């Protein structure tokens, strides 16, 4: 095997096995810190040894064995140094609940621990990317525009809290499961959106590394919880959004709206997979949650070969369903944008204007108003709304798009 | 594990109502019945506190709490719970019973 082949196997194995190794070690040693360090050591050893000794026949088993040995070495070292300290490291591990069957995968415990509601949202995101995703601290720091030392401290503090506060390493009980799953999905969606709607003047408008990582982790959760409708819904939503990535930003770095995108450059395979998931959920016949409805809206958009073929009445009906579940002003805003296509910009503008109290600080509110005012030939008001939207928008491609639209006003 | 559940009291809250006292009693009974009870107590107003400093060899007494804030500790539970999930569930019930925010903190 050539050096580059070995390297490819290493990358692939890291992606496939990292979470499994960390999860197995956490279960055995009852300590995330030991697990993380030993897993990292094992992969570092693989990077050293595999190009020389060759790739072992079962890379995953080799890594788990090596990591176990590293962890035992560390525990022994600390045992010699300080018995009490070692005792504290060997935090108790909950016995596996008897009835969970297929979903009692160790990686699932790891995910639920990293996304525990007693941790702050930023912390959950960082911990999930590190422990489950296997990203390095510096990669996570770069992704969220935070100093590496600050990100390192955030993760260290989180591990310390998990240990000291007794956050359990287990899959929540059936009664708590839906709420806790929705907490996990919120973390994954945040990672995806941070990639999809990247903010910051010096940032790329779309951060493919983050969207890809979010999709990979959501696929993992989907594999572990195949019956959960919202997991399927979120995966479908991400796939149908990611499918349009190439079409979403022009060569000049400007945002391209859904209506203006070259639909031929959408990723047909991702769309087909997303549609399959949406159909699967429709066939299940269960009342859909938020992510399933958002996925269905995206399925309608991506089913239209041309923007003029879009079934807007279907989209508005789906938004009506979403409003009943989530009566937030942002959902109302998105619904109004769809209403413009069905009932015209005047009706939509009236609905948008009703949201002023809640959304006056949100760029998309002003961008939507600007577009509707433009279509109603109210140029001066439209220009003022574009100005406000540009002032508030954080995404470089979006700012460029809004500025062009404003400058095209007569 | 043992956890301290602190009851956070806001100046604007006023004293516990009879209904709140009754709910707290019922919650305490449950903690005892289910083996989560270690200890609990309610505190008088911070203005009744005295700060003692005996680091210098002679004890100095200062009238009043060590820090003046709008929010202060009004009472607490010490509970025994298998893990944080159990502690959080009990604390949520405690918050409902006393009708105040509570903070959960593990003992070392």
CATH topology annotation of the domain at 311-410 in chain A: Serine Threonine Protein Phosphatase 5, Tetratricopeptide repeat
Order of H and E elements of chain A: HHHHHHHHHHHHHHHHHHHHH
Weakly predicted, low-confidence segments of chain A:
85-103
List the total number of helices of chain A. Answer: 21
Mean pLDDT of chain B: 92
CATH superfamily of the domain at 311-410 in chain A, by name, is Tetratricopeptide repeat domain
Quaternary organisation: heterodimer
Number of helices of chain B: 2
Q: Tell me which CATH architecture of the domain at 311-410 in chain A applies here.
A: Alpha Horseshoe
Order of helices and strands of chain B: EHEEEEHE
Structural class of chain B: alpha+beta
Q: Any overview of this molecule?
A:
The complex is a heterodimer of chains A (410) and B (108). Chain A is built from 21 helices and no strands. Chain A is an all-alpha fold. Among the domains of chain A are: 87 residues, Rna Polymerase Sigma Factor, Chain: A (Orthogonal Bundle), CATH 1.10.1740; 100 residues, Tetratricopeptide repeat domain (Serine Threonine Protein Phosphatase 5, Tetratricopeptide repeat, Alpha Horseshoe), CATH 1.25.40.10. Chain B has one domain: Alpha-Beta Plaits, CATH 3.30.70. In chain B, 29% of the residues lie in helices and 36% in strands. In chain B, β3 and β4 form a beta hairpin. In chain B, α1 packs antiparallel against α2. The radius of gyration of chain B is 16 Å and the shape is globular.
